[in-house]
Specification:
Blueprint: E1 7-8, E2 13-14, E3 16-23, H1 35-49, E4 53-60, E5 64-71, H2 77-95, H3 97-102, E6 114-118, H4 124-132, E7 138-139, E8 142-143
Antiparallel strand pairs: 1-2, 3-5, 3-6, 4-5, 7-8
Helix pairs in contact: 1-2
Length: 150
């Protein structure tokens, strides 16, 4: 896969990367060869169709999948994962009917998921310090408003 990059749009510039973890329904072991290979191919198709979804890494661990996805600020994490889960489920069931039999409820994914943002050149502590330090200097007679303090 690839590294994140700065995405430029008409009204924003961003570098938003999300780490998603999606478990299979009932935590069944379904992501084995060749299903995990099919998953990667499906994700390549999603990326080609949706210019606001960019898969950076995909890692299947038998009963759950990790996705590292870059997107734009106009699309929420829930919207991103909804697209990914719905398309991958339909296509995997179509290409691997044995998976659908193994998951008697007719769903590939559990309802929930984990999501976290990922920083490329920084971390939470660095940003917290940067935000905390705002307003400590006067600029042309104006002082930054401080709302929260710790």
């Amino acid at each position: 896969m690839s590294e994140s990059e700065i995405l430029r749009a008409s009204h924003n510039v961003s570098n938003l990367v999300y780490h998603f973890v999606c478990p299979a329904k009932y935590r069944r072991i379904v992501f084995t060869d060749p299903v995990d290979e099919t998953l990667v191919q499906i994700c390549a198709g999603i990326e080609a169709r949706y210019d606001w979804i960019r898969f950076m890494e995909i890692g299947a661990d038998k009963n759950h999948v990790h996705f590292l996805i870059q997107s734009t600020p106009t699309h929420s994490p829930s919207e991103i994962i909804k697209v990914v889960k719905s398309i991958t489920a339909r296509r995997i069931f179509a290409e691997h009917p044995e998976v659908k039999k193994q998951l008697w409820g007719g769903q590939l994914w559990s309802d929930g998921y984990f999501v976290s943002t990922v920083g490329k050149n920084t971390n939470e502590d660095t940003i917290a310090k940067y935000v905390r330090e705002q307003g400590k200097q006067d600029y042309d007679g104006y002082k930054q408003l401080r709302i929260f303090t710790k």
